[in-house]
Design goal:
The chain is 82% helix and 0% strand. The protein is an all-alpha fold and 403 residues long.
């Protein structure tokens, strides 16, 4: 019997490894995507920069991440030594040190460019690619468990960062978080992704040729469109959720209660994934997309339905996060998984970078009702895309069998 490649673990990720990877994701998300939610007010007050300038840097980081992800996926696919994931925490720490030391906006923005690089290297898409390449058993369920742990990132990171901010100020908060990244991320990823075969390339010429064809296929474009629309819809709704609720005549005190259900409901989605795990990935995609739309309808319909609407929407969004890893894996398998995940993540991240500005423009230029109609139409289109993806998957698998 032919031995398995050295770059593939024969076993599965055990509980300790899954827990460690989930904790690493909480720290990485907290040092990037969720950081400004806590620090922005103090940064604006000290530096006298505008709200748009400060939050525009997060959009810049998302843009950089989206542009780099195909390269990250290719690098993970090509080499056995997982330097990308190993050094993501060190790179993010470097960005935070520059931000904490910034005396002008150019320096501040440069720090976010580096953080965007680290986001491409270490967040979900790079992690899913690395897991799919290294481990051969129960990969999809491992991804669900990791996202279950890391769904606590907003709550944990906001609480932790707020505590440091109150005691040490925003600049020292950046330095302290940088130290946390340096001492945790490298050893966690080193333990989970132990190098066993050096740094040799495992990507053959014929694999490269076949991957190019994959990126030109109807199925790839449909998946990319579905993931991109999902990213635009969920990002825009989450960012403008307070405005949407206030427009529906919900009192501000009640708004704060309503939005507090978002984080726990996203974690609940991971539990649902485990409970109904026998469903295929494409079935889960249909459920997720439909639930997101239903949650939006409840949120838009009435202030009385806002809490159940946010819970339903959060569950759908939580499922969507898991499907970013499990759907491509179920379709393409492990052979091209790192390349596919890296490519598929590009457009959604670019869309996330522009979604806040586009959403704000629609609200200011045409009003809240028009904005809600546009987002609802996009959600309906996304549901129909699932049917097209299902047909494309069946055709793709038939072609693969004949070949």
């Amino acid at each position: 019997m032919k031995p398995a490649p050295q770059s593939i673990e024969s076993g599965k990720l055990d509980f300790f490894k899954v827990l460690n990877l989930g904790i690493a994701q909480i720290i990485l998300w907290g040092g990037s995507y969720f950081l400004l939610s806590v620090l922005a007010k103090d940064i604006i007050a000290e530096m006298s920069w505008s709200y748009q300038q400060v939050y525009g840097c997060l959009s810049l980081a998302l843009l950089v991440s989206g542009l780099l992800l195909p390269l990250v996926g290719r690098t993970i696919q090509q080499t056995d030594r997982n330097a990308v994931l190993l050094f993501s925490g060190l790179v993010m720490a470097m960005g935070l040190i520059i931000i904490g030391s910034s005396s002008n906006f150019l320096m501040f923005a440069s720090g976010w460019v580096i953080i965007g690089t680290a986001m491409a290297m270490g967040l979900y898409d790079a992690l899913f690619a690395a897991i799919g390449k290294r481990y051969s058993f129960n990969v999809a369920k491992s991804i669900v468990w990791i996202t279950l742990v890391s769904s606590l990132a907003p709550s944990v990171s906001w609480l932790f960062t707020s505590y440091i901010l109150d005691s040490f100020g925003w600049r020292n908060t950046c330095y302290i978080y940088a130290i946390l990244l340096i001492i945790t991320i490298f050893p966690i990823h080193m333990r989970v992704f132990k190098n066993k075969a050096g740094n040799k390339s495992i990507l053959k010429d014929e694999t490269l040729e076949s991957s190019v064809e994959l990126f030109r296929s109807k199925l790839y474009y449909l998946l990319s469109a579905n993931f991109t629309l999902g990213a635009v819809i969920t990002t825009t709704i989450i960012i403008h959720l307070i405005e949407i609720l206030l427009h529906g005549k919900t009192e501000m005190s009640m708004v704060l209660i309503v939005i507090s259900f978002l984080g726990p409901s996203q974690a609940m989605a991971r539990v649902m994934e485990l409970i109904i795990g026998k469903r295929t990935a494409i079935e889960m995609s249909f459920i997720s997309t439909t639930i997101i739309f239903l949650g939006m309808v409840l949120i838009f319909a009435s202030p009385i339905l806002a809490i159940p609407g946010v819970i339903v929407f959060g569950i759908g969004n939580g499922m969507r996060s898991v499907l970013r890893g499990t759907l491509p894996l179920s379709v393409y398998g492990r052979d091209n998984y790192a390349l596919i995940v890296g490519r598929l993540a590009r457009m959604p991240l670019l869309a996330q970078a522009t979604a806040p500005f586009l959403g704000g423009y629609l609200i200011q230029r045409f009003g809240m009702i028009f904005f809600l109609c546009v987002i609802s139409f996009m959600a309906i289109v996304n549901i129909f895309l699932i049917a097209l993806i299902k047909q494309a998957i069946e055709q793709y698998k038939l072609i693969s069998i004949h070949e």
